[in-house]
Amino acid sequence: MSQPVARTKMSADEFFDWLGGQEKKHELVDGEPVLMAGANMRHNKITFSIGLALGNQLKGKPCQPFGSDMAIKIPGGNVRYPDIVVDCGKFDDQLAADQPVLVIEVLSNSTRMFDGTIKLEEYKKVDALKYILLVYQDTPTVYVYTRDMSGWEFANVKGMSAVIELSQIGVFLALEDVYSGLQFQNHLTLVASPEESSIEH
Question: Which domain covers residue 132, as residue numbers?
Answer without folding.
Answer: 39-178
